[in-house]
Amino acid sequence: MAAKHNSEYESSELYRIRHSAAHVMAEAVLEKFPEGKVAIGPAIADGFYYDFDLPRALTPEDLSEIEDRMKKIIKGKHPFTKEVLSADEAKKIFADQPFKIELIEGLESGSLDEDGNPTDEKPEISIYRQDKFVDLCRGPHVENTSKINPNAIKLLNVSGAYWRGDEKRPMLQRIYGTAWEKPQDLKDYLWKLEEARKRDHRKLGKELDLYSINEEVGQGLILWHPKGAKVRKLIENFWSDEHEQAGYDFVYTPHIGKAQLWETSGHLGFYNENMYAPIDIEGIKYYIKPMNCPFHVYIYKNSLRSYRELPIRLAEMGTVYRFERSGVLHGLTRVRGFTQDDAHHFCHPKHMPAEIDFVVEFSLKMLRAFGFDNFQAYLSTKPEKSVGDPERWKAAEEALEASLQRHNLPYEIDKGGGAFYGPKIDFKVNDAIGKDWQLSTIQFDFNLPERFDINFIDENGQETRPYMIHRALLGSLERFFGVLIEHYGGAFPAWLAPVQAEIIPIADRHIDYANEIASAMRKDKLRVHVDARSDRMNSKIRDAQREKIPYMLIIGDKEMESGQVSLRKRNGEDLGSMPVAEFVSLAKDEVDKKI
RNA sequence: GCCAACAUAGCUCAGCUGGUAGAGCAGGCGUUUCGUAAACGUCAGGUCAGGAGUUCGAAUCUCCUUGUUGGCUCCA
Questions:
Q1: Structural domain containing residue A527
Q2: How far apart are CA A278 and CA A268, in angstroms?
Q3: Which nucleotide lies closest to A340 by the C1' atom and the CA atom?
Q4: Most buried of A277, A280, A286, A534 (most Cβ within 10 A)?
Q5: What nucleotide is nearest A433 when CA is compared to C1'?
Q6: Does A574 map to a domain?
């Protein structure tokens, strides 16, 4: 992802507090480990971190000790003072700090800035001192340590981090901390983290019995349980209806394809590290598909195409398998086998802008249907490993950018983040923990048409190469489901809830009536379940509540006599008794409105 | 993959410095038939992730493997 530079945040007092807290933490760590080496320690969203090379691994006890030392340093009211100096002077000061020396050399040569990014100008070299600690730093900082509220900081965790983010370089220990202006802000933040944990799709997935991952089956491979599968089916149905109306044709393609196919497509050359080892079938190598595109291309190529048929939009819920390193797997959001809501558009070059607009709009419509209004757009440009000439890359990037501008969508540029075959627009949404996940992706491709030599006959009877767009709107059903669970906190809106209404008979004599209205409601396409256990009503309500079922229908003597149901919603609202038909129309109305 | 931590019943977790497992919920059975977030009783459940080692003795100590978590790197 592109480096985010939020200048408003960077010039705020809070940013200075966090950055200063990082320096104080470094001082505290060096007090404890005088032989420790310091790397870098910036302020980040919600806090700060600092990387160290230390003689041993840190424990949670070390963290609280470091935190205590920090509080002592803060109370010393030490001023932060800045000095600008030459590279040589700086090297003397940091003689026993190899990481700092490397940073100074980067600044000196003017080739790298302090984040290790290439830069044109030679930045000035400055240091900041507070108490016994001195750090190579551009600043800014608070005036003195007392500006940091000792009761509004907390060290959160330790983790490994490569020096300069390069896995070939040493692994350092990174301490993450958070700092706020007031203790109450810290409390609020910690409460927010706690709330986020409650919405975690891995926790809810287990509690609501939606899916599981089994060690024997394999890492990153999802088992969809009946309730999760129900939600998936509802998503797929909605998706199919929308696509059908939007002019897509559905296709199905195999899970494996010959090596030659992936050779032609360029995947073996450019996407190899994400592909699994080939399978030998009668001496011929086949690969499990990491993408669906080559198959769709062959469906296009199967017949002679006229400009009159374009655009052709081929859609498929295509299941793909990609190698992901074990350490990156994460619940439903990062897996090894997943189903993309994939489609490929083939269009006349002159219709490309309109076609991009169409997909952008369709994509937004789809995300909004699931209640996502907060997403960020990214424009990803040419990566280092890519095919196609730079001229065309540039033109394609401009075409995508123009569409974003036409739709007034704020976007960021993700430099070098494109696919190997073309630039792309991505939409990301935030999950409960504030992590953003890429869902929609709209990718321009001028390479596969070339590589597979696909054509259409244009208005002048000439063979012409179509342009191609790859797109996945929900991204993958697995990731989408994970993000959706967190988005709704497991309380799916009625149209997506696996069980929409739990019918709760108060006593056994009400069960027959409960079953009767249940089957009537099923005819009205409502998903209902009768809780016929011999438990008390209170306990049935409690269970339905925990399952986050939208409607609870209480059936007792009164309801049975009057042919009614008593409706309780999962938010605790008691709507009292109403005729069954009234409930059905209320529920269907909410289902239609997707609320 | 890398750094670190963790893995005890279906779930959530106890089990101190080694003396061969325990609770609540869920489940089975029985009693109860109840008006808006937990009725009562009873029974059953575990090769303590897997393997090897140290020891008279390992859930507990050591090593390896598998998996999970938090990050790094990478991505739908």
A1: 501-592
A2: 11
A3: B76
A4: A286
A5: B70
A6: yes
